């Protein structure tokens, strides 16, 4: 870009010099936003015959177009993000419900196995006590086996299902990963 004084210094009437712009082909406007969607023009360069001021209208229109596209893209990104958050919340809620269901099933299976084992132990103690009484006869009350039977009966009393905590359906107060 070259600036040529319009008035010779000796003929000036003010302290400010006025210059006339001479196109050099180096002046360029550029929109530094990418990507350039819809093949939007992003550079305007002055040439020997083409002046930049003749291109300002097109430059401004493209600036507005790109700004509008960026605003629309930002709005669409925001909508996509909100949808993703909603879907993520649904997924986490479903995962949480599945964890509660799995916990209920696990408790049911464990407690069923516990009850089955206690009932098997009761049946065993009943059967072995009858066999011990048959074998030991009068010696049963003072025998080591009778002490073992007393201990086994105490074990059953401590572990009777009537002393167990009742299962709960509402497990919301238990810790489950919610993200």
Automatic annotation (TrEMBL):
This is Uncharacterized protein.
């Amino acid at each position: 870009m070259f600036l040529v004084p319009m008035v010779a210094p000796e003929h000036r009437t003010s302290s400010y010099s006025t210059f006339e712009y001479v196109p050099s082909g180096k002046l360029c406007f550029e929109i530094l936003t990418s990507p350039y969607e819809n093949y939007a023009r992003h550079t305007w360069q002055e040439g020997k015959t083409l002046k930049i001021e003749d291109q300002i209208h097109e430059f401004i229109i493209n600036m507005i177009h790109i700004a509008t596209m960026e605003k629309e893209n930002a709005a669409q990104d925001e909508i996509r993000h909100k949808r993703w958050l909603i879907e993520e919340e649904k997924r986490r809620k479903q995962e949480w419900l599945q964890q509660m269901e799995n916990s209920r099933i696990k408790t049911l299976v464990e407690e069923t196995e516990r009850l089955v084992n206690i009932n098997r132990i009761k049946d065993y103690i009943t059967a072995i006590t009858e066999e011990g009484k048959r074998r030991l006869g009068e010696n049963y009350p003072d025998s080591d086996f009778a002490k073992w039977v007393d201990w086994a009966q105490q074990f059953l009393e401590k572990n009777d299902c009537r002393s167990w905590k009742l299962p709960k359906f509402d497990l919301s107060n238990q810790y489950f990963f919610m993200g």
